[in-house]
Amino acid sequence: MAEITERITQGLSVQRTNVEPVTEPVTLSDIKDYISMDDSLSIHDGVLNSLITGFRILIEDKLGISLIARNVVVSWRMLYDFERLPYQPINGDVIVTDLDEVVLDSEDYYLRGVGGFLEIVGDFPNGITLAYLTKPVDKIEPIQEAIKAMIYSRFIERKSIQMAFLENASLLSI
Q1: Which CATH number does the domain 1-23+68-137 belong to among 3.10.450, 1.10.10, 1.10.12, 2.60.40?
Q2: How far apart are CA 138 and CA 156, in angstroms?
Q3: pTM of the model as a whole
């Protein structure tokens, strides 16, 4: 592989599709217990379920991890050097193609692990697409606690979503 002299990345596109059935990292019953709500009271179930999903997605997007299984297709119009794959850990193989869906020779790129994340390394002036399946991260307990605390801040203390996230982000040490 030729030495890369500059780092250029353009045109990132990410498509993600949940693998059904979706199993949230925190259950409605967990949240009700955390906020001391009677489990039989169902009037707020829709709001609480939305908060569970919303904070899960926010955490996934901010940390670049997956908390549920999903199919991910990530593309760059142009890529020189390296780029971290969003939504990890990866469960199985990564299919690497050009933008015309022609499978690339493995001599044209390599995948490397850096700091617990996977990066694609290579020279792709005509673009690249990677398709893979994710699985939930292994160390889920701190994230579950963070989601519960964020929902408490939003639902009980009536703080904004941004404030609830920021005030409890320190719990996300994974």
Answers
A1: 2.60.40
A2: 29
A3: 0.87
